[in-house]
Amino acid sequence: QVQLVESGGGSVQAGGSLTLSCAASENSDMRTCMGWFRQAPGKEREWVASIYTRFGQIFYRDSVKGRFTISIDNAKYTLYLQMNNLKPEDTAMYYCAAPLLRCSRPGAKGDVGYWGQGTQVTVS
User: Fold this and answer.
1) DSSP code of 89?
2) pLDDT tens-digit profile of 77-87?
3) Over the stretch 3-52, which tens digit does the pLDDT of each residue have?
4) I need a surface site. Which of 36, 47, 74, 90 has the fewest CB within 10 A?
């Protein structure tokens, strides 16, 4: 059974940092392209960043470029999202997603195979 388990969320002040982790089950199909999405209260779930796990090609939404870094440890089947210089508008539930049918700007509906349970990030 496919599983994605996030951790690392929390509450920080603006300008602070957090690192999210997503442990994926050992399934090669899961790891072609993986990514992070987020959903703020009352808003649609939106894509944040994604990575081709084998070739390392990376994509970010414009609002997080230069502040967030997505990476993967293939040996540990773990995806990371390092978030620096956090802003209040980054407050959301963050979800790990895999596999993604599109790695560049995937949609939350139709492009995602499996979701994690989510981890809350709150920036004040």
Assistant:
1) G
2) 899 999 999 99
3) 899 999 999 999 999 999 999 886 666 678 999 999 999 999 999 999 99
4) 74
